[in-house]
Amino acid sequence: MRRLLTLPLILIILISLCTVCSCEDAPDTSVTMICLNAGKADCILLSIEGNYYLIDTGYKHTADLMLEMLKREGVDRLKGVFLTHSHKDHYGGLTALAASSIPIDAFYAPQYCVDGNGAKHPLVIAAARRGQAVQFLQSGDSLDISKTARFDILGPVSFDRENENNNSLVMRLETPDGSILLTGDMKFEEERDLLKSGLLSMTDVLKVAFHGDNTSTSDSFLAAVRPRVGVISTSSAEEKDTPSKDTLYRLAAVGCETYVTQNAESAIRLVLDDGKITVSMENWKQD
């Protein structure tokens, strides 16, 4: 009789142990997005399942802030560095990054650039210092991060030969814990291209385009993406019309809670975890 009772007990214990082990072995799929306060410039660090990606590098004179962010976050390798477009407030920190000891697996830029993608392209120069080449991305490309996370390249859809902002790399990060739409400095014209293409869909977090200027983030665009949280990288001291009151109003009208980097001492940290979004203001000077 005791032997008959022992077998079910052993099975229960084994099942319990397997459940505990599977929970302990389950990977952390949460996503962290850190938007650096680099004045009007853009510089964003993404942490996805232990992989780090840098989106733009800020100004040349804010490069030390970028390197401090990487150091504080324990970044010992960058899986990818993306340049959304070739303006100084996005590529300024590339020289310092290329001179650093941080390994970089890949460099990415949009296929279109007003000044061309030759040897004078700022990301081509930075990659060449590492003995590496740049992968130029186009709408429809996809970069796998893991079995469950990826970057989908949405834009640019067409080449704007006059305004480099409309050649901005637009990417959607898709993960089990939520989505992020990264927009560079695209203006109304690139938004219209994306709307016509049918590539836009609802997102959890929006990196608001063009520093919150009133020539981007239209009502039609927001109706398509309907973000829950938005982040604007800007400094009103440098660009007095940003963030635009009209842009902030349009974001609020779709229920988007918006944060601006100039309101954080050091950076804005967003964490996406199982559909929840946690936002905190970082002040590294207090540490």
| Overall number of domains | 1
Largest sheet: 8 strands, mixed
Number of strands: 15
- SSE string: HEEEHEHHEHEEEEEHEHEHEEE
Describe the structure.
The protein is an alpha/beta fold. The protein has a single domain, classed as Ribonuclease Z/Hydroxyacylglutathione hydrolase-like (Metallo-beta-lactamase, Chain A), CATH 3.60.15.10. It is built from 8 helices and 15 strands. It has helices at about 1-25, 65-70, 90, 95-100, 120-130, 190-195, 220-225, 245-255; strands at about 30-35, 45-50, 50-55, 80, 105-110, 135, 140-145, 150-155, 170-175, 180, 205, 230, 255-260, 265-275, 275-280. An 8-stranded mixed sheet has the order 6-5-4-3-2-1-14-15. The longest helix is centred in the first third of the chain and has 24 residues, at about 1-25. The chain starts with a helix and ends in a 5-residue tail after the last strand. The model is unreliable at about 1-5 (pLDDT under 50).
